[in-house]
Amino acid sequence: MPEILLLPGDGIGQEIVPEAVKALEAAGKRFNTVFRFKNALIGGAAYDDCGNPLPEETLRLCNESDAILMGAIGGPKWEHLPVHLRPEMGALLPLRKKLGLYANIRPAVLFPGLIDASPLKPEVVTGLDLMVVRELTGGLYFGTKKREFVDGEEQALDTLVYKTGEIVRIGRLAFQMAQKRRKKLTSVDKANVLASGRLWREVMIKLGQEYPDVELEHIYVDNCSMQLVRRPAQFDVIVTENTFGDILTDEASVLTGSIGMLASASIGGKVALYEPSHGSAPDIAGQQKANPLATILSAALMLRFSFNMEDGARAIEDAVRQVLSDGYRTPDLMQSGGNQVTTAKMGDLVAEYILRG
Ligand code: NAD
Fold first, then answer.
1. At the fourth CATH level, which superfamily is domain 119-255?
2. Which of 16, 37, 85, 333 could tie 292 with a disulfide, CB 3.0–4.6 Å?
3. How far apart are CA 256 and CA 267, in angstroms?
4. Is-catalytic flag, 236?
5. 279: CA distance to ligand 1 center in Å?
6. Which of 28, 2, 7 is nearest to 18 (CA)?
7. Count of helix runs (H) and strand runs (E) in the chain
8. Where does CATH 3.40.718.10 sit in the chain?
9. Which of 278, 289, 293, 340 has most ligand 1 atoms within 8 Å of CB, for mutation?
10. In the prediction, which pLDDT does 176 show?
11. pLDDT digits (tens, 9 = 90+) for 6-32
């Protein structure tokens, strides 16, 4: 029986994770799989409980599970804490590192029902269906950091390091993803300015020789950010390093209509972590206004990548498409003529549509 560890976390995490559980249970029922769920604390909720945003017990349960579904962590309540105790630095980054999750996969798909919710004109955004593969455990976020006084002035240093092996493993994964899609891979770097960018590009070019069926192109990150709003449908799979990936995925997310639509999977280790791309949204927490679809679509990725249940993943994605086509909207997606629903109602509708098939 597949065991899923639930880490709802803080803010809207508490509201959106139960809705994804409804979708998983419905998909399980339709395709004869029973999931077992366990819960654990992470982030601010864990800090309040035991003074540690990533308790040993949570880590143990993560390692014992078959897949992890997380909500979001953080919020103003914990922002004053020393950096190592803050939810993101003290829990999320070390969790990814400890589980060996070196790749973050974020699909950005425009569901036809949301074409008017995108900030781009319909003729520009039509056909958007891309996937960003972001390196997750290297680069600036994990390099040596320092603050020091030099000549009577304080300065801060962050180090951007990439080893060949780190680029090869993320590159391979991206080529393999492209092989299963439209066979086009865009590698994003800043090779004109950064030494790490030049190594990144050299490694990708070399790897490309092993995947002759995939069309490989290189693009500077500034141009990529422009192309994403100019002609987003040109992209199939995008592969990039940690910091650029962080920024580009947020940009890609709004093209889909709302950050509440963007799912993510962090893979590469024994146990994968699935979570929406957004944060804990303290401004709307506890009000049943949060869009649970990014978390529900992350659960679909879990069925696809961790449990090899392609039918279940498609059933969830089809249900989301249908619910949106039928006009149901959480407030972030609301347009005139839409039928506004709460977080829980959206979850109920998706589960109902999954079961209906
Ligand atoms: P955020 O993603 O939480 O919110 C940005 C905006 O998007 C807000 O207006 C919010 O209401 C809206 N929003 C986000 N998710 C939504 C959803 N599902 N439905 C409807 N609207 C949604 O980003 P932020 O405000 O910069 O950060 C808030 C907290 O979340 C901070 O403490 C930050 O550190 C943390 N954070 C956590 C993660 C994570 O857990 N992976 C990621 C990013 C930020």
1. Isopropylmalate Dehydrogenase (3.40.718.10)
2. 16
3. 23
4. no
5. 3
6. 7
7. 13, 14
8. 1-106+268-357, 119-255
9. 278
10. 95
11. 999 999 999 999 999 999 999 999 999
